[in-house]
Structure formats: C-alpha cells, structure tokens
Design brief:
The complex is a heterodimer of chains A (360) and B (291).
Chain A: H1 2-18, E1 22-28, H2 34-44, E2 47-53, H3 56-65, E3 72-73, H4 77-85, H5 105-111, E4 121-134, H6 135-142, H7 152-155, H8 157-163, E5 168-170, H9 174-184, H10 194-207, E6 213-214, H11 219-225, E7 230-234, H12 235-248, E8 254-257, E9 264-271, H13 279-289, H14 292-302, E10 305-306, H15 317-320, H16 329-334, H17 343-358
Parallel strand pairs in A: 1-2, 1-3, 5-6, 5-7
Antiparallel strand pairs in A: 4-7, 4-8, 4-9, 4-10
Chain B: H1 2-29, E1 32-33, E2 40-41, H2 48-53, H3 58-65, H4 67-100, H5 106-114, H6 121-132, H7 137-145, H8 158-182, H9 186-194, H10 199-210, H11 212-227, H12 231-236, H13 244-254, H14 258-290
Antiparallel strand pairs in B: 1-2
Helix pairs in contact in B: 1-14, 3-14, 4-8, 4-11, 8-11, 9-10, 11-14, 13-14
The chains are: A alpha/beta (360), B mainly alpha (291).
Chain lengths: 360, 291
C-alpha cells in the first residue's frame, strides 16, 4: 500500500512538472474576446486552459474546498473579500506585474475596500446594477412620464401592477436586490442589521405578485426579443440585450438606466488561488490582461467598463462615450458599494430570499 | 475460506462506497461552519480529543426550528409519490404492449426504450425546456390546432417537473414490469378466461397480481431518485417548486454552510432508507420465490 502511495505521489509530481507551461483561468461566461486568449498563447507560448462559471457561489465553493487547480479566478468584490479572509488567495508579486501602472486609481480606491492595498487582486471589469427597460412598451403602459430611471419602476406596486402582464424579471441574487430595495426606502443599502434587512422583505413582497421570474441571465434574451418589459439586471447584460434587439431590427428599443436613487457598483477582480499550480504563469496572464490594448479589446467586446486608465484612449466611442458604461462624474458619485454579509446574516438573507421567491 | 471471501466482497463494496462517504458527510453535519479551507471546523488536524469534543447535534436542532426544511421534505415526498404514480400509469401499458408484442419485435421495442439513454440526461432535460416554453413546440402545436388561443405557461411550474421526472425515469418503470410480464405464463390467463373471467377480470385478477413484483421494483426505482432530484426541478421548475435537493444546494452554495447542508443530506438519507430496505426485501422475496 505504501509503495502504491509513493508511486502515485511520484506520478502526481511528474504530472505537475509536465504542465509547467500551462495556465488555467476560470472566468465568468461570455466575458472576454476569445481572440485575446489566442494572442496570449502566441505571445507567451504558455498553453491557456480557459473555463467559465456563471455564479460567484459556484466559484466560492470551489475555492473553499481547495485544490481547484486554477491559476487565475475572477470573484466579485464582496466574495473576494471573504475568500481572502479564508486564506484562499496568494499576494500578488508587483515585480512580475509591470503593467500595474496602467490601472485607474478611481477604481483601485474602491476595490481597496474589499482587498486592502489591492494586494491580492487586480480589477478586470466593473459595472452597475440597474434597470433594463423596453422603452416603447413601458411608456405605452405607464405614460410618457414613466419613471424609467427610478427604482419606483420596480418597487412601487402601482407601477408593477400595470407592468405585470408584460413581464418583469429581477435578478436571482439577494445580495443585489436587497440593497436596491433598501435604497428605495432610504435605508443604508449595505446594512447588515437583520431588522433593517427585514424592511427590504416588505418592499419585495409588495411587488412579488407582479414579478414573472427571478433569474440572473435569461433576461438578456427575454428583453431583446420583447418578451418582457423590464429587467433589473447587470449593466453590460442589458446593453447586450439592447444591441441584440437593434441587430435583429425587431422594433424593440431597450435602454439601460442606473437608478437615480443610486446604483450598486460591483467589481470583478482577478486573483491567484493560494494553491495555484503555476503562479508564475498566472502573473504573466494578469500582466497580459493589464496591457492597455488588450484590456481595451476586452471592454470593446463585452461592453463593460474596466479599471485600466491607459486603455481608455483605445476604447471605441460606443463604450467610453456611453454613460451607461462609463458614468459621468456626478453619477459615479451616486454609486454605492456593499460589503459581504457575515455568516449569520447571510443565512437570514438566504432564508428571506427563499421566502420571497417561493412563499415559504 | 472461500465463503469468507464471498461475504467479504459485497461488504467491502458497501463499506467503501456507502459507509465511508456517509460517515464523512455525517461528521461534517456535526461540525460548525468556519470561514476557512475547508469551510468547517473541527478537522482531524486539531487532534483526536478536541476533534470529538467539538462535534454536536446543533445543526439538526436548527433544521427542526425552521419550517422551511420539513415543508421541503414533505413537498419532495409529494412530488416523488405523484410522479411515481404517473410513471406507473404511463409505463405499465407500454410494458404490457411490449410483453404482448410478437417475439421478433421485442428487441426493437426494447431498443426504443433504452435508446434515449445514449444521450446525456442533461441535454434531454434541456430539450424539454425547448418543448415546454411559451414559444416552444408544444405551445406552437396547440396554437396551430386551435385548442388554445394563448400559449400555456408550463415551463417553470411544478407540472413541468412532473413531466420531466416521468419522462426521465420511465425506462426504470418499464423494464422491471416488462421482465415480470414477459415471464408470465399465458396459459394462466387462458385458464382464467375458461373459468368465466372477462378479459378485464383476467387482467385485474391474474396479470396485475402476477406482475406485482415488477410494479413494486419499478416504483422504488423511480421514487428513490425522484425524492432527492435536483437537476429537473432547477431546470424545469419555477420558484414555487420546493424540493429538498434545491434547499440542499442553497445551503451548500448560497449559505456556504456545509454542516447544515450535510445535516439536510443525512436526514434525506434516513428518509430514503425505509423505501430502500423495503425494495431490498421485495427483491429478496422474489429471488427466494423463484428458487
């Protein structure tokens, strides 16, 4: 038996050695221009294995189980913070990242809230959470002065009652919807007090009968096809819906509005797991991504803003000139961020969310 | 010695593939959640004595304190029972027809039942999303026939979950019933009819009782996996479909609470042990009867 274990250990060692020129990246789905992946392989000669996920929860479970085998992963800010506390990541080595000088301090200041001094991560993309609106249908139902850019649209039962027949989707993500509901009633969106969070439940239950679905990706197609009128979702996704509708020339006009009351700003951060098999190649990948041209190519492709100042002159006008992607200074001031819920509060939040969705 | 090996093999199998995984899950269910890798405490590296001292039944007490869990168990039981019954209703006539079909057709019919298994289960469930959605084939067909004027909402409801379970587990129902019916001695039915039974009476009084073992085996093979089903309710079900598999997922992924998730799994297993034992007994009795 011992001999068997020895030989399998040797096998494992040689296996790692033979993969030394390989880097494994785990990123969100539909979140990069695939040409960049080929470019990285051509430039560095490192074999890139690129996998995708579609929820922070799945990523976090892999991180906390350990031994994921990935060299670069992309958690959002609040999740990153918790995983740093759990010891899931290693500190970045700035000497291997000369392109760090390209980064944008406005974003770095905010991400430092999750990752002090940005010691463990670099920003990949950021965006806001807000309202995707089928302009024609909503103004038809609510009149010309419909509150297209206000939380009134989805949290006021009077508006929702009229919109119900046409279809409203909300994100199936309590960490996004509860802060928005709290913002609507003037509470602190980042509150961790269960009594305050319970007030969000009242708001959401008030409009629950008029919500067709809680889902975090179906709204892209549903908006673009004109199947639904309103979706509360992520900025880039709604902009993709807008472009798909425009391409299809189906008469559907979609607009994205960050709520005037204030919108949640989120950050997707690239980090290197503590047990990454090939941290050196991981640093090369991060440095490659922070290259101004590469980052601009990525943003031009996915329609999300990035945290790279040097890439801004290289962005197409559709991206840099669109206030839905790069908000003006005043809107930027109005954006808020949230911090992770402690375990006990997280349980309250998940329970509340189950109750809102299923009525139990 | 030979006898010992004969006994040892199945027990080693059971130990390695059932008991050891169960004990790991059971141990996690007695632990406490912690923000670390792995996300619970204690682990064996804490030392043997502190390890055992830190274990407690707190998580099970928690499950009892929130009505979500027993509601989800009950709802899963109901969905599993109803879909088992529906599968039987659909599967029995199919198995009966197969057993009555001419000898040379049977391999083909058998093939038709098994063939869908060659495609990934996940893809087949996704296909149902395409069939049942508002713009899906079913609604298009019904609109075309004029039976309905507005598309029906089937996808994301519990009805869709029933359809998915019945479709997926149908072969598990058909095959044991077919095996029972296939062995049925045709002369018994003739005898019943000679003695004055109508065809229906002969079916009800002779065929059904003689295929009982197949019905029982098929029902358990459908009921047991349906109870803990996760993929079908999460893809086809709506937010109102409460099933324990989904609750378990949420505990594990949303709450990151492995200990509570493990406690949910342990109780699910305890609930399943009753039908599994009954199923084993049925199989054993059948084997003995044949001897």
């Amino acid at each position: 038996m011992k001999k068997l274990m020895m030989s399998s250990a040797v096998l494992a060692l040689t296996a790692t050695a033979s993969f030394a020129d390989e880097v494994r990246v785990y990123n969100w789905s539909d979140y990069i221009d695939e040409a960049l992946l080929e470019k990285f392989e051509a430039e560095t000669g490192i074999n890139l294995i690129y996998d995708v996920f579609d929820s922070n929860e799945v990523l976090e479970t892999k991180m906390l189980a350990g031994g994921s085998g990935y060299d670069v992963v992309v958690p959002s800010g609040t999740f990153l913070q918790r995983q740093i506390t759990a010891g899931a990541f290693q500190k970045l080595d700035p000497s291997q990242l000369p392109n760090l000088e390209n980064m944008w301090d406005t974003v770095e200041q905010r991400t430092a809230q999750y990752d002090p001094d940005n010691a463990y991560s670099i920003n990949y993309m950021w965006g806001t959470t807000g309202l995707g609106v089928n302009v024609g249908k909503v103004t038809e139902l609510l009149g010309e002065d419909a509150p297209l850019g206000s939380l009134e649209l989805v949290f006021n039962p009077e508006n929702m009652e009229k919109l119900a027949g046409c279809g409203v989707h909300l994100l199936d993500a309590p960490s996004e919807m509860i802060p928005a509901a709290l913002k609507y009633i003037g509470e602190d969106p980042d509150s961790h007090d269960p009594d305050v969070i319970a007030k969000a439940e009242e708001v959401l239950l008030g409009v629950r009968p008029y919500i067709q679905k809680f889902h975090s990706s179906e709204y892209i197609n549903a908006l673009a096809n004109g199947d639904i009128c309103v979706a509360f979702g992520w900025s880039g996704d709604i902009l993709q819906a807008r472009d798909r509708a425009a391409e299809a020339e189906n008469g559907v006009e979609i607009a994205y509005n960050a709520p005037s009351e204030g919108a949640l700003m989120w950050f997707d951060q690239m980090a290197i797991p503590a047990d990454a098999p090939n941290p050196e190649a991981a640093h090369k990948f991060l440095n490659f991504i922070m290259d101004a041209q590469n980052m601009a190519d990525a943003s031009n492709y996915v329609y999300y803003a990035n945290g790279n100042l040097a890439s801004q002159p290289l962005l197409v006008e559709d991206v840099i000139g669109d206030p839905a992607i790069y908000p003006d200074a005043a809107t930027l001031e109005n954006l808020y961020t949230t911090t992770p819920y402690p375990a006990k509060v997280q349980r309250v939040v998940t329970r509340l969310w189950t109750k809102i969705k299923s009525g139990t | 010695m030979q006898r010992l090996i004969l006994i040892a093999v199945p027990y080693t199998w059971l130990l390695a593939l059932f008991l050891v995984p169960f004990l790991i899950v059971f141990k996690i269910s007695l632990s406490d959640v912690e923000l670390a890798i792995p996300p619970y405490t204690p682990t064996l590296s804490d030392g043997i004595v502190p390890f055992f001292k830190a274990l407690d039944f707190e998580n099970f007490a928690f499950l009892a304190s929130d009505d979500l869990y027993w509601k989800a168990y009950l709802s899963s039981l109901r969905i599993a029972l109803i879909s088992t019954f529906l599968t039987l209703l659909v599967g029995y006539p199919m198995a009966y027809a197969m057993a009555r079909a001419p000898e040379e057709w049977r391999p083909t019919l058998m093939m038709l039942v098994i063939l869908p298994f060659w495609t990934s289960f996940l893809i087949r469930v996704y296909a149902w999303m395409g069939i049942l959605s508002q713009e899906g084939f079913l609604n298009q067909f019904l609109l075309w026939t004029g039976l309905i004027s507005e598309p029906l909402t089937i996808l994301n409801t519990t009805t869709a979950v029933y359809i998915g379970i019945v479709y997926t587990y149908l072969p598990f129902m058909i095959l044991p019933i077919f095996a029972a019916l296939d062995r049925l001695d045709g002369s018994l039915i003739e005898a019943a009819e000679d003695l004055g039974c109508s065809r229906f009476q002969a079916f009800w009084l002779v065929t059904i009782p003689l295929s009982k073992n197949g019905i029982v085996a098929g029902s358990f093979l459908v009921f047991i996996p349906a109870l803990g089903e996760f993929v079908i309710p999460s893809l086809l079900g709506g937010s109102g479909t409460l099933m324990i598999g989904k609750v378990l997922w949420e505990e594990f992924f949303n709450n990151r609470d492995w200990p509570v998730a493990s406690a949910v799994a342990v109780i699910l297993l305890l609930i399943l042990i009753i039908p599994i034992v009954l199923f084993q007994r049925n199989q054993q009795r059948q084997a003995e009867a044949e001897q």
